[in-house]
Amino acid sequence: MESDKWSKVLGWVDNAQTEELINQPAAACDSRQLGLKCSQSGQHASRSMKKNRSKPTAQALRRSLRELARVARVLALEGHEDITLGHVSMRDPAGRGLWIKRGGIGLGEVGAKDFQLIDFDGNLLQGKGERHNEWPIHAELLRTRPEIDFVGHTHADYIVLMSCLDEELRPYTHAAVFFDPIPPRFTQTSELITTPELGRALAAAVGGAAAAIIRNHGCCFVGRSVAELCTNGILLRQACEIQFKLSLSNARQVWPEAAEAARKRAALSVNASGVELYWNYYRRKLEQHEKRR
Ligand SMILES: [Zn+2]
After folding, report:
1. C-alpha 157 to ligand 1 mean position (Å)
2. Tens digit of pLDDT for each residue in 19-72?
3. Cα of 82 to ligand 1 centre, how many Å?
4. What's the CA-to-centroid distance between 13 and ligand 1, angstroms?
5. How far does Cα 279 stand from its chain's mean position?
6. CATH of domain 2-292
7. Does pTM top 0.85 for this prediction?
8. How far is 35 from 64, CA to CA, in rounded Å?
9. Contact 224/150 with Cβ under 8 angstroms?
10. 3-class secondary-structure state, position 180
């Protein structure tokens, strides 16, 4: 059941509230009133819920979109910004499609009101402004991956550099070891992914992986929570930076074999609670950065 899944994702929404969320008419979910979305710890969100149980639906979506906006701004801080290009999205909890960052602004400028609701065919249902034309990346990944609710697509500097090398990513250090499987390369085209056909081809290449490198273009990454989405994007860039810089060296290179990498992965606590710790670190870092401005 869709409602059951979102109850788990949001953590604190009980069954009755979840039903209300699913049954909410589109007009009540206007992005001008709502913020963004989830991935706060259940404890924190639970406290907020107790403060105002009269509007759980609007609050849940607002909180989720606000968190997704934070992901966009953290990614900008961590080397993912490319002018106004790059976008993040989340599955609409009411099953109408997905909320995607609007066009015309950079990742570092995204706030809770900068998301549009589109259906899986790209039709604008709510929100204003330009729609990113690579929306099929998000629609097709979310359509083919029911276990994930968040997608990112960026042209992060070192990921773009790695995307120009005909090299598979290797588990040189912690950053790449984090991924299992190692993010594959999508090599069919370097052109913009603006059609459902290309979106489906990309989704097929990604398979069950948490991220992929798109040849001569950038990357995509996914998550079951905003914490996973953000962590996957950041660690993919770190892994690409390490490998690209190593590629400039003539020194002999080594990397751990599969069993050693698996042991490292286990020791790194690559699980939901571990990822939540990383996300909380980046939330604090963003907060400090924005206070200084
Ligand atoms: Zn792109």
Report:
1. 12
2. 344 334 333 333 322 323 333 333 333 333 334 434 458 888 989 999 999 999
3. 10
4. 35
5. 12
6. 3.40.225.10
7. no
8. 7
9. yes
10. coil
User: Crossing angle, helix 135-144 and helix 196-206, to 10 degrees?
Assistant: 50
The pair of structure tokens assigned to 181 is 């499987």
Ligand 1 centre to CA of 89 (Å) is 14
Q: What is the pLDDT of residues 161-215, one digit of tens each?
A: 999 999 999 999 999 999 999 999 999 999 999 999 999 999 999 999 999 999 9
Distance separating the N- and C-terminal Cα atoms of the chain = 44
Structure tokens at 146: 């029911």
How much distance in Å is there from the Cα of 86 to the middle of ligand 1?
A: 6
Give the number of residues written for the chain: 293
**Tokens found for residue 259:** 């069993």
Cα of 164 vs centre of ligand 1, distance in Å, is 14
Q: How far apart are CA 75 and CA 89, in angstroms?
A: 13
- Domain borders along the chain are 2-292
How many angstroms separate the CA atoms of 69 and 63, rounded?
Answer: 10
Spatial neighbors of 112 by CB under 8 A, at least 6 apart, are 34, 35, 36, 62, 65, 66, 69
